[in-house]
Amino acid sequence: MQIGLHHLAKPMLGDRAELDFNVAPDLSAVAVDGSRLQTAILNLLLNARDALPGGGRIVVTARHLPLDLEAARSLGVEPGPYVQISVKDNGSGMSQEVRERAVNPFFTTKRAGEAMGLRLSMVHRFAKQSGGTIHLH
Question: How many helices (H) and strands (E) does the chain have?
Fold first, then answer.
């Protein structure tokens, strides 16, 4: 995952962001469409890049995440084994209001003529179709 993504992501990020991957060495295969997963991660990387207008660091982490009944309920998914993929940046962040609306396909913080603002809604739809979810911090 990390080598192929790094080659795709680096030109998108340019010199604006340092990109690091932290992938568990024993990460299990997941039952999702690989190209859609890659697109979802690239969309998250683009959002992270946009939060770093003056540059910064982005870290992609992938790890095992077993969810018991209580943890699964809190996330709105079924209990069981999951792989958690997180994209973290040291950028400007989102207000609570933006986080609450961020996955709505008709919501954007972009100005007219800028990016389409559909990235998080596409990631959210893919995660839900794959039996998972997203959580924004």
Answer: 5, 3
Give the list of residues 6+ apart from residue 43 with CB closer than 8 angstroms, or none: 119, 120, 122, 123
Residue that is written with structure tokens 């003056």 in the block: 54
3 has a pLDDT exceeding 60: no
Contact 91, 51 (CB under 8 A): yes
User: Residue by residue, what is the 3-state secondary structure of 105-133?
Assistant: CCCCCCCCCCCCCCHHHHHHHHHHHCCCC
pTM: 0.85
Q: What stretches of the chain adopt beta strand conformation (E)?
A: 17-23, 56-67, 80-89
The larger pLDDT score, comparing residue 94 to residue 85, is at 85
Partners of 60 in the β-ladder: 21, 87
Which two tokens mark 27? 């990460």
